[in-house]
Amino acid sequence: MKAVQIESVQNMKTLQEMRLSNYLPEISKDRPYRHQRLLKKHIIELEKNSKALQKENQQIKTEMLRLRKEIEILQKNDQTENDLSDSNSIEDYIKSNSLHPINNRMDEMLTNLTVQQNQNVENIANITKQLTNFDKLHLSVLELLENVESIEFKVDNTFPDIRKEISKVEVQANEAKAELNQLKEEMSNSRKSVKAIGVSVSNLQDKNAEDHRFLKEVDSRVQNLIRSSSLQNSKLHDHILKAESASVDLNATKSTVLLVQELKSFEKEYQNIINKLPYDCSSVSGPNGIYLISPGGGEPILTNCEDGWTIVQKRYDGSVNFNQNWNNYSNGFGSATGEHWIGNRNLHHLTKNNCSMLQINMKDIYGKYWQANYNDFRILDYSNGFKLIIKGYHGNASDALDYQNNMEFSTVDNDRDISNTHCASNYEGGWWFSHCQHANLNGRYNLGLTWFDSSRNEWIAISNSEMRIKPREVC
């Protein structure tokens, strides 16, 4: 019985120690537990079981005391009674009579106590496991809360920066709106300017038409002067022949002298007109358009002038056949108002002072613009086959013309290239061919207008081309 009491007391102490030990983790003031209702419920049930166990132990103690008193009474009775001589008989009497139900009851109570104690131990172990799981869950929740708090802290810290960025974006949006409004105003102004330019262009076109008519009249007058001079020359020769065949006639001699003087006056007037013409477009003072220039070689030519540049070649629709012979390429063909070639003789006269630069403007079949500029451009004379001398490239179209440098001009009837094939015949146009070409702007329009871009190692298919020359500022 004492052993049972001692074991029950130890169980109570163990329970108290478990409540104070790590099985029931201490609640922190700084980070209190959340979701502890189930834990508290188990603790309350454990306390109830402990109290019930204490009551049962108390009952056992009272029963033990009562049994002790009964035993003492029985011992006193045994002393008074002499029938029973020794203690073994008293014990047999107690066992057989009054102590037998008490022992049965005590055994039953001890069994119940043992069962209850085992249940309490199991409950304590389960509660311990649950408390451990709750502790782990609580730690995970605390970590989660700390992460949430750190995220909230970061959000609170970054929120001013976000507001600043939003303010910057709003400022940029307002600036963009202001720029857009300004662009709209500029667009409206540009439209007005375009309308004004259109009016000016129409006026210039009218003026150019008048100038063109005037130039035609001047050209017709020059042609008339040439024809009249040739007619006068023929008449003079006839008079001379008549004078030689017939007798010397003083009146005929006088008329011959007058005709010679008249012819000289016509030639002087024609030469004065030619001398007054500009050498090239850089000497023209006036708006862009068609002008009569006299680069040399006796006859003036009509050319298109733009900002001091003399247009020497132009192609845009294939309306002019560029598969011409040597003489046509030498003298030039086409119209200055459309597709044309100014002529190799005129190119020689315009560049013979070794002070000309070349600009080539091109547009490919996809609408992209390309440009090739050469600071030094020169064409030699007829005796050198109108050889090309070129250097000083810059632009975005690649230096394709360098492949044709120092090459003589070739046409369908005059093959001067260094290839085994007839390049001019194959590509149907005159050009400075070598083996055969890297650049060719005079070939067949829908097939042969090409320019090789060495930076991309690709051919550029040209739809529009324009070659223009201009004297350098410093020679």
Automatic annotation (TrEMBL):
Q: Per the database entry, which stretches of residues form a coiled coil?
A: 36-77, 166-193
Fibrinogen C-terminal domain location, by residue? 272-473
Kindly indicate whether the keyword Coiled coil belongs to this entry.
yes
Q: Does the keyword Disulfide bond apply?
A: yes
Alphabetized SMART domains for the sequence: FBG
| Pfam family for this entry, one | Fibrinogen_C
Q: Which UniProt keywords apply?
A: Coiled coil, Disulfide bond
Top-level taxon of the source organism: Eukaryota
Q: What is this protein called?
A: Fibrinogen C-terminal domain-containing protein
